[in-house]
Amino acid sequence: MLDLINVSYDTLIPNNVGLSTDKRVLKALEKWHPGYINWWNDLIPDNFQKSLVYLRTAVSVDPKGWAKFDYVKMPEYRWGILLAPQVEGRTIPCGEHAGQPAWQEVPGEYRNMLKRLIVIQGDTEPASVEQQRFLGRTAPSLYDMRNLFQVNVEEGRHLWAMVYLLHKYFGADGREEADDLLRRQSGSEEAPRMLGAFNEETPDWLSFFMFTYFTDRDGKMQLESLAQSGFDPLSRTCRFMLTEEAHHMFVGETGVGRTIERTCQIMAENGIDDPYDIEKIRSFGVIDLPTIQKKLNLHYTLSLDLFGQEVSTNAANAFNSGIKGRYMESRIDDDHKLTNATYPVWDMVDGQLVRHEVPALTAINMRLRDDYSRDAAGGVGRWNKIIEKAGIAFEMKLPHEAFNRKIGVFANHNFNPEGQLVSGAEFDKGINDWLPNKADGDFIQSLMNPVYEPGKYASWISPPKVGIDNKPGDFEYVKLHMA
Amino acid sequence: MNKPIKQHLIDPEICIRCYTCEMTCPIEAITHDDSNVVVDAEKCNFCMDCIPVCPTGSIDEWRVVSEPYSLEDQFAFSELPAQEDLGQDEASTGLEALDEAMATLLADAHKGAGGKAKAPASAAKPSVNMYNLGKPAVAKVQGNYRLTDDDGHDVRHIILDFGGQPFPVLEGQSIGIIPPGTDADGKPLLPRLYSVSSPRDGERPNYNNLSLTVKREEGGLCSNYVCDLKQGDEVQVTGPFGATFLLPDDPSARLLMICTGTGSAPMRAFTMRRQRTVGAKSGGMLMFFGARSKGSLPYFGPLSKVPESLLKQHLVFSRAEGQPKEYVQDRLRSEEDEVAEMLQDPKTHIYICGLRGMEEGVEQAFTNIAESFGEQWSALRDTMREEGRYHVETY
Q1: Three-state secondary-structure class, residue B254
Q2: All structural domains of chain B with their residue ranges
Q3: CA–CA min distance A297, chain B (Å)
Q4: With an 8 Å Cβ cutoff, is B367 touching chain A?
Q5: Rounded to a whole number, what is the distance in Å from the CA of A374 to chain B's nearest CA?
Q6: What dotted CATH number matches B254-394?
Q7: What is the reported pTM?
Q8: Which CATH superfamily includes the segment(s) A23-479?
C-alpha cells in the first residue's frame, strides 16, 4: 500500500504522492529539476551554498514528522512534494457546488481559472527568494542568517508544490507554465514577476522583516483561502504549505520586535525619552522608532495592494465555483453560498470615503483584506507592548488602508496615514514623515554590517528570547564556508 | 483544595498567533481571540501533536494549578503567570512528567534529596511526555553491547534509533520502555524508567538516537527484555521524563557526581555533553563511581581514556581482590579537602544516582565533611537543593 504520511526517497524528488508509480509526472518533474537547481545555484552567493545551515526538513506530513532539524548544504536540501493527508469524504466547502464531493481531478469548466490561481501563487514563491538573494551578506547574526535561508528553501519548496500541480493536472500547458516560473525574474525588464510587490529588491534586513511580516502574511491569507478549495489536491498542498508559512510570520514578527526592543534598550541606557530625537538615537547605531513606523507604513500598504480590487467578479467567480474559499471558511457559520448576503466595502462618494453594502459574493477580496488587517494588527500590538514596557511614549500603528495605495478605490487619491483626503501639496509635504526616504534608507543601509560570530548580534537588533529548536544562545546556526 | 492538575499553556510573549497549533490539534482544544492563542484545560489530553509544529517554541509551557486558568484568564494574559507554590509534594506539584504514574515514580526516585527537586538555573528547557502509553514512539535497536566482565553482573549499553520521530532528550532525563505482554488483568504493562546515557545531540552526534545503560536483574521482566534486545528489534518508548535532574548549561558550573553501577548513565551523558561542547574549558567535573570490581564497573575501558582535565575520576571498588572493601562514601571522606572546597563553592552542583539507599552513606560523609568547615549539612543541602544544585535519583 502507498504510504502517504511518510516521505519516500525512492526517487530523486522526495514526496508523499507516490511519484515512483506515476511515471509520466515523475519524468516531467525530473526534466524540470535541473533547471530548478540551476536557478537556485545562480541565485544565492556561492559561499553560502557551501555553508552548513541548521535547517528543518519535513520527513513526514504528520505533526511529529515535519520539523526534523539538521545541518544541510542548501543545494542538497530535500525539496520535495508534500501534501497534507487526504480527508475522507471531504466536500466542496463553498459556492454553487457546496456539499458535493471535492474534486480529485481538475473540473474542465474551471481549468483555466484554477491554472491561473496556481501560477500566480507559484510565481510569488521564487520571486521572494530572488528579492532576498543578497541579504546573507549583511546578516545581523548567524541565527538570523539561518532564518533567512530557512525561509528561502521553503519558498523554493512551495514553488515545487505548485509545479507539481501544474505537471500533474495541466498537461502540456502546465509544463510550459512551470518552465515560465523559472524564466521570469524579480525586477527583470523583459520578464518580471507577475505581481508588483515582488519586483522590488529587499534592500536591508528591516525590509526583510517587514516583508515577511506583511507580505508573507498576504501569502498566508491566499494560501488559507486556497486551502479551502474544492479542488482537493490544491487544498492539500496549501494546507501543508501553511505549516511552513508560519515560520515566515515568526521571522517577521520577532525580527521587527527585536529591532524595536534594541532601540528601546539603547534609549533607556542613554537616558533618551524623546523617540523623535532621531539624530541622537541613530548615533548609537539603532533605528529610531519613527523610521520603523515609516517602514511599516510602506510594507503594509504595498501588501494591501496584493488583494486586488475591493469589488471583483473574478474573486466572486472563484468563490462561486468552489475553487477558492474564504479565510477559515469551514468555521464561518453561514450558507457558504452567499446568495443573499452583503458585505460593506470602501467607496469614494463625492470625495468622501464611505463603506456601503454590496453583494458579499463580489466582496470576497475586501473580506479577505479585512481578515488580513485584523491578523496584521495583532503583531503591532505586541510591538507596542515592548515599547510600553520600556516606558517610551510612542505607539506603532497600521496606517489607514486608503494611504499610499496603487490598486483599488483609493488609487490615484492622496490620503494621509489617518485616512483623510489631502491636497497634492499637503501630501508632498507630509510624505517625508510617512514613508521612508532616501536618507532613511541610507542610514539603515549603513547599519547592515554582517555579524558571523555565534551568539553575537549586530548593534541594531536584540538577541531572540528562544533559540530555534530550543538551541542555546551561542549555537552555531550556520557553519560558514570560508573560501 | 482540589487535587492540583497539570495545565498546558502558551507563552503569549513568544507566540506569534500563526494558529498552526490550532489547526493541528485533533480535538480542537486550542482556540484564539484577537490577542492570544489558548488551550482549553478541559479538552487538552496531552497528545503533544501541537508541540513540534510550533515555529516559535512558545507552545511547550506547563503549570501545575489547583484551579485551571480559564479561557478568559488566558485571553487576558500579557505574560505567562509564574508557577504558584502548591507545596512540597513533588509527585502532585512537580512537572517531571504529565502522567501520574511516571510522576510518582520520579518523585520516589528523588526522595533522597530531602525535599522537592529543582532544576539548575541555567539548565536547558526539557520536553516531557511527548509520547505516552496510548501513543508510544517506536525505536529501533541499533546496538546492544555488554559493558561488564563479571558473571553475576550483566550490564548492557543499548542504542535506540528514533528515525524520523522527534524525540528531544536532555542529559539526565529518563525514558520509559514498555515491555511486551499484558498484566494479570490483560492490560498493557506499565513502562519502566531508564536514565538516558547519551547527550542531547545523540549517541552519535546529530543522529536521532540515544543510549541506555541497563543491568539485567534476576527475574526482572523489563530488564531481561531490554538486555536481550537484538539489533533491528523495535521497542515501544514513552517520555522523555524528568525536568530537574539536568545539566547546568553554564560551562563554569562545577559538577560533583557520585554514582554506583548503572547510576553512571546520566554522568556519562553529562560528560559527553561537556566533551562535545566546552571540553576542558568547563568549571570541571569530579566523579566518585562505585562498583564491586573493575569487571563490573560499566564503561571501565572508555573511562580510562577520558582526560582528567575534563573529568577527574575516583573509581571505588567494594570487592576488589586483595583490597579492603571501599564504598563511595569512604572515598569522599578520604578526599575530604577537595570535597569540602567544592561544597563551599556556590558554583558546585551535586548529582547522586544509583541504587536506593546509597544516598544515606553519602549524606553521612557530607555531614562529617560539612562539620569540618563549620556548616550543618542538612541546611547546606536544603540551600543547594533550593538553588537547583543538589540532585538525587536512586531506584
Answers
A1: strand
A2: 5-86, 137-241, 254-394
A3: 20
A4: no
A5: 8
A6: 3.40.50.80
A7: 0.79
A8: Ribonucleotide Reductase, subunit A (1.10.620.20)
